[in-house]
Write a structure and sequence with these properties.
This protein is α/β, with parallel strands linked by helices. Helix content is 50%, strand content 7%. The protein contains 16 helices and 5 strands. It has a 5-stranded mixed β-sheet. The radius of gyration is 25 Å and the shape is elongated.
């Protein structure tokens, strides 16, 4: 076992036993750590860079870890150290908080060739996280605070978070059904469901991932619709990761329905807060022009749905003449309302959407706990009058 791994394992085991080194942290130091860990899901890069800096300082106390690039005076390669040692460890112990790209330094706000002093100009979106991050490094380098102490408390907080019911069981799990206590069918009007989806899609969460919500909602509807006559003998493709491009995956849309021979029958491309333009229509055609797809939906949460109606219609007509595929542009919510009218029991959609939210949360990192919490809160509104 190399020295860096030994450091990580030692602090991790100490954290597992909750034995905080010496007397713990001061009130300000605890506040900085809490800010970092509380925002760990949406600020993975900051968390990764901070852990990298702390471990490097433990490994080499003479290194000022604020100088995180070799081109800086007396600097070191923070990105290389992270890629080899830190991100693999986080992926092993705290998978949900690991960087997908392999290093925290792939983020523009952290890769700049400036030292991480209190004056660091990088535009970390969350100002409180930026201040906490820079203050911890300043405290270590200027005030000679113990990096082991910081790292141990960070690991303790992360272990506690990973062991919490939110991460272990999910917000929706109950002993009887595995779903929230959803009221009976008569209280679940289509109008109410659409109203709650609109709230769930459009609230300002302050973290990335909201664009995944309408994709999961439409996919949930298709899981219900696949049994109707139009889709007889057809197959619904599994949902791809939101970070996987159609070009890379070989797909043509966010949601895809396949014929028995594996060819495309129908596809849906979903945009969040982006009106459909003729450019989007043309770009979609480039993806499906060499396929057998007969219907292609472009759905958006933006209102109005279309940027230039005449130009969009002209593009749609041109595509139909060339390919015979029918391109349909519409809003997400009107489409979902139409889908729900085709279901005998709207409650099934709510349960399926809840299930897919939690499943996507566990399998990917687009859906955050705040998205689950807010949906859980909205579910409770089913027992109240429509507002």
């Amino acid at each position: 076992m190399n020295k860096v791994r030994e450091i990580l394992e030692e602090i991790y085991q100490l954290a597992e036993s909750s034995q905080i080194i010496e007397s713990g942290l001061t009130e300000d130091q605890n506040l900085w750590v809490n800010t970092i860990v509380k925002n760990a899901e949406s600020q993975k890069a900051v968390l990764t860079v901070l852990i990298t800096s702390l471990v490097k300082k433990i490994e080499n106390p003479a290194q000022d870890t604020r100088y995180h690039k070799k081109e800086l005076t007396n600097g070191y390669s923070g990105r290389g150290f992270d890629t080899v040692h830190i991100t693999p460890f986080i992926a092993e112990k705290f998978q949900r908080f690991a960087m997908k790209g392999g290093s925290g330094w792939l983020t523009r706000s952290l890769e700049q060739a400036h030292p991480y002093t209190l004056e660091y100009p990088g535009r970390i979106q969350n100002v409180s996280v930026k201040n906490a991050f820079l203050n911890i490094l300043n405290d270590i380098e200027e005030n000679k605070s113990d990096p082991k102490k910081f790292l141990c408390v960070i690991f303790i907080s992360m272990i506690d978070l990973m062991n919490s019911p939110i991460y272990q069981k999910g917000l929706f799990e109950s002993e009887s059904t595995g779903f929230p206590n959803i009221p009976q069918t008569e209280t679940l009007t289509i109008e109410r469901i659409v109203n709650l989806l609109k709230r769930h899609f459009n609230i300002s969460y302050g973290v990335a991932g909201a664009s995944r919500l309408p994709v999961l909602a439409v996919f949930s509807a298709y899981e219900m619709l696949i049994a109707i006559d139009r889709y007889k003998s057809k197959t619904l493709s599994p949902l791809k990761s939101h970070t996987t491009s159609d070009t890379k995956s070989g797909g043509i849309g966010d949601i895809e329905v396949l014929n028995e021979d594996g060819g495309y029958f129908e596809a849906v491309e979903i945009k969040h807060n982006i009106p459909i333009s003729s450019g989007i229509v043309e770009a979609s055609f480039q993806k499906f022009m060499n396929t057998s797809v007969t219907r292609y939906y472009l759905l958006t949460t933006a209102e109005p749905n279309v940027e230039d109606v005449d130009e969009v219609n002209e593009s749609i007509d041109k595509i139909h003449r060339m390919h015979r595929c029918e391109v349909i542009v519409n809003g997400i919510l009107p489409s979902i309302k139409y889908y729900l009218r085709m279901l005998s029991n709207p409650k099934l959609f709510v349960e399926t959407y809840s299930k897919n939210l939690e499943l996507d949360y566990k399998q990917n990192t687009d859906i955050k706990t705040i998205h689950l919490r807010y949906w859980n809160d909205l579910i409770k509104l089913f027992s109240d009058p429509i507002s």
